[in-house]
């Protein structure tokens, strides 16, 4: 990340409400409709060897319900017979049974180490589909959500190694060539990781392009690239142009080069390590002078050595070789008083007399890292004594001190979360390097949502008590991450929900919602104007708008497997039932 631009997220103050008074619990009943499924959802439970937190995040908390953002109120799921089932809603009171739009050609139960089947809608007419066994399908679907125009046709079907789930995909045209880029997520065994979890995460970026050969149009793999990291990414998405990739993760990802490059890098690392282990010279200092010791070859005599002193520079050469040491000294010396001798152990000892007595030199030659500074015991004691006032052997020695640096009492248990140092990185598809990086610090990742299917998915972060929604703009370097909406106090509210499983929000930002593992769904409507007059008795003023919290309890004993939000309704999927909760009335 050496060449990456370190950026920050710019909050729009106009989208914040410092006077937000909280959510009022509303007893308003919400219309809830339910559809019994012909066959159970194809849930894949974690195996005994999938025991890490990363396995739970990637597969155990997988959202089995897929929202087609290109068509309003259109959801899909895969059932235990390998059928891709669709429900398209136009009228809640006239719901049709979910209909089959595609059937996976492979027997899902035949693969022992399979993962859940996954779907991503690359465009209004293209779909990427994985059966969970390691096979990827690229499908031309036609206009979806309408049985007359929707026909799923396989145009690419290939085994791509170990099982994966699809994290994201995009469809784009470049140089008159149609391509679909797909991001595949795997959690793989890492034999070299003996101290950690024993697994690593890979994101494979596969580009499938339309190739024309002698009038025959077919789709083939055009490019495959692999990133590796040590934690499942919270967010991973390909830019609409296919030129880059954005990842939000707790631990960093990097591209894995081919083996030859890896060997070269390892050799370079080994050389660098050796250089560090064997310094070119050692140096010591007092308030008055600096002593430098350089090891020289056995065959070098006094006549072969040339040491040139000047007030600010030094140069040491052996025979006719390039200078062994050369450069500007950290501070001036009395060059006429500087000397050098050869010791019995074949080492060259140089004595430099400081022009200004007292100040310590942090380095000998400016910018030269080939030397090693050796500090004697008296200097160590002196430095330790000067730093004593910064340390204490007693925990919190002065708790009554005025203006303490941190008041732990202001933090609550629900404010603590495991990963307090996630980062957002943007990778370039050509150089495979990080171009932009943002340290998210305490801005906890909450969820992602597609607001505009032609843009990248938005991600929602906690900022203090609020939840802020950010829209990436890969084509706008000056405004790459735009703050587009705020869900008041949602950051604080969601932290207190210990059993939450999924979070979502409406694409029009009218509400946010979260569900627990079983039954309960919480809806947080954003402030809306009141039709009646309401007074705040404490402050004696009129309240113009109010934000509501609504709670729905589903009539189901099965765990919630899928959760999606549209501007009008919430879709909740359990093993055998699909629930529709009407949140907003249509225009």
Automatic annotation (TrEMBL):
Keyword presence, Transferase: no
- Which keywords does this Swiss-Prot/TrEMBL entry list? Cytoplasm, Nucleus
Q: Please give the PROSITE patterns that the UniProt record associates with this protein.
A: CS
Q: How is this protein annotated for GO cellular component?
A: cytoplasm; nucleus
Q: Where in the cell is it found?
A: Cytoplasm; Nucleus
Looking at the record, the residues that make up the CS domain are 276-365
InterPro entries assigned: CS_dom, HSP20-like_chaperone, NUDCD1
Q: Which domain of life is it from?
A: Eukaryota
The protein, known as = NudC domain-containing protein 1
- What is the species of this protein? Calidris pygmaea (Spoon-billed sandpiper)
């Amino acid at each position: 990340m050496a060449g990456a631009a370190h950026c920050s997220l710019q909050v729009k103050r106009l989208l914040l409400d410092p006077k937000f008074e909280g959510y009022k619990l509303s007893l308003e009943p919400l219309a809830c409709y339910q559809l019994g499924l012909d066959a159970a959802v194809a849930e894949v439970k974690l195996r005994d060897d999938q025991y890490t937190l990363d396995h739970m995040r990637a597969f155990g908390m997988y959202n089995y319900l897929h929202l087609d953002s290109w068509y309003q109120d259109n959801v899909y799921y895969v059932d235990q017979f390998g059928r891709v089932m669709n429900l398209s809603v136009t009228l809640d009171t006239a719901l049709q049974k979910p209909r089959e739009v595609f059937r996976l050609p492979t027997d899902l139960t035949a693969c022992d180490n399979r993962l859940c089947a996954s779907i991503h809608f690359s465009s209004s007419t293209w779909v990427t589909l994985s059966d969970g066994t390691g096979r990827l399908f690229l499908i031309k679907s036609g206009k979806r959500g309408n049985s007359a125009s929707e026909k799923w046709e396989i145009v690419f079907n290939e085994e791509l190694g170990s099982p994966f789930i699809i994290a994201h995909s995009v469809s784009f045209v470049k140089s008159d060539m149609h391509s679909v880029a797909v991001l595949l997520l795997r959690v793989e065994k890492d034999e070299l990781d003996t101290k950690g979890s024993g697994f690593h995460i890979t994101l494979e970026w596969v580009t499938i392009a339309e190739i024309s050969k002698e009038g025959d149009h077919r789709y083939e793999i055009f490019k495959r690239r692999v990133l590796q990291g040590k934690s499942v990414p919270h967010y991973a998405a390909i830019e609409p142009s296919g030129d880059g990739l954005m990842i939000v993760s707790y631990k960093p990802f990097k591209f894995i080069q081919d083996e030859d490059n890896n060997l070269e890098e390892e050799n370079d690392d080994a050389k660098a390590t050796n250089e560090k282990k064997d310094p070119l010279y050692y140096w010591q200092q007092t308030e008055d002078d600096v002593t430098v010791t350089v090891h020289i070859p056995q065959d070098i005599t006094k006549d072969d050595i040339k040491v040139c002193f000047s007030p600010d520079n030094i140069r040491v050469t052996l025979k006719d070789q390039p200078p062994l040491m050369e450069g500007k000294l950290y501070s001036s010396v009395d060059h006429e008083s500087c000397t050098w001798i050869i010791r019995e152990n074949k080492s060259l000892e140089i004595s430099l007399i400081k022009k200004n007595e007292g100040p310590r030199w942090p380095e000998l030659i400016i910018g030269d890292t080939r030397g090693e500074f050796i500090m004697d015991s008296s200097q160590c004691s002196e430095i330790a004594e000067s730093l004593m006032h910064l340390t204490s052997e007693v925990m919190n020695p002065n708790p009554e001190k005025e203006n303490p640096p941190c008041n732990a009492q202001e933090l609550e248990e629900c404010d603590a979360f495991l990963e307090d140092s996630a980062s957002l990185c943007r990778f370039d598809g050509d150089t495979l390097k990080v171009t932009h990086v943002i340290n998210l610090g305490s801005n906890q990742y909450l969820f992602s949502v597609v607001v505009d299917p032609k843009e990248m998915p938005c991600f929602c972060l906690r900022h203090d008590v609020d939840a802020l929604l950010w829209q990436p703009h890969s084509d706008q370097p000056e405004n790459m991450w735009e703050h587009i909406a705020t869900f008041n106090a949602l950051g604080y509210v969601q932290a207190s929900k210990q059993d939450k499983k999924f979070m979502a929000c409406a694409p029009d930002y009218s509400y946010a919602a979260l569900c627990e593992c079983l039954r309960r769904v919480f809806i947080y409507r954003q402030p809306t104007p009141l039709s009646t007059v309401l007074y705040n008795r404490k402050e004696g003023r009129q309240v113009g708008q109010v934000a509501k919290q609504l709670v729905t309890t589903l009539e189901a004993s099965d765990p919630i497997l899928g959760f999606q939000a549209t501007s009008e309704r919430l879709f909740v999927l359990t093993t055998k039932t699909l629930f529709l909760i009407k949140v907003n009335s249509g225009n």
